Amino acid sequence: MHEALPALVLDSKAVSRTVMNETPTNQASSVGNSGAAPSTSDEQLMLAFSKGSSHAFEELFSRYKQPIFGFFRRRVTESAQAEELTQETFLAVLRAGARYEPRALFRTYLYAIGFKILRAHRRKAAFRATFFGQQNSAPDPSRRDATESGLWVRRAVGKLEAIDREILLLREFEQLSYAEIANLLQLPLNTVRSRLFRARTALRNLLEPSAEPATNHAEQPISKKGERS
């Protein structure tokens, strides 16, 4: 995906002028013009951004642009749609920067925003399909072009129940913890565990090739030499 989002949005009116014009604190200043140190946590970066550091946001964008793009790409049809939703997600982070409080991991916070944007996108697509007769712009990823690699897996994943599929994707692709998934989907932790086990089992069964029926040699005719034909 394109990487010009920070330069684009930091100059836009979408960002609070108060936040972006504030003098960065020592924590924000420590990010420096060359970006954050690898040891700087996501939460520290977000706090630095909330206090005025544009470099902190650029570092967060660098860390999460591909994971968030992948999150959307596995859930919508077109790459361009996934890129647009990714940009909307980071724009939402920008707008909410001044109100940020580290109540949870930044990753959980970011994916929660992504889920809200995905749900809004799906509602709009359903509205267009219902009232304007347009084809849903976000069909199940398992229905993509047959020339794409991994179609077999996508079809199998598409056959899972919606909630099981979402839990499986969040765990296997986004690599979120059970607690993070439970928080995002508003489900009990044990439910996440049990449904993930069920989803993995169902997917394994779907991906296993059907066994060829065994030939019953006892019913085959025997040649004159005593060998089965």
Helix and strand succession? HHHHHHHHHHH
* Number of separate domains: 2
Report mean pLDDT, rounded to a whole number.
Answer: 75
Terminal Cα span: 60 Å
Helix share, percent: 55-70%
CATH architecture of the largest domain: Orthogonal Bundle
Instruction: Give the overall form.
Output: globular
Number of helices: 11
CATH topology of the largest domain: Rna Polymerase Sigma Factor, Chain: A
CATH class of the largest domain: Mainly Alpha
- Judged by helices, strands and strand pairing, the structural class is mainly alpha
The major pleated sheet works out as:
none
Name the descriptors.
229 residues, mainly alpha, Rna Polymerase Sigma Factor, Chain: A, Arc Repressor Mutant, subunit A, 2 domains, 11 helices, globular
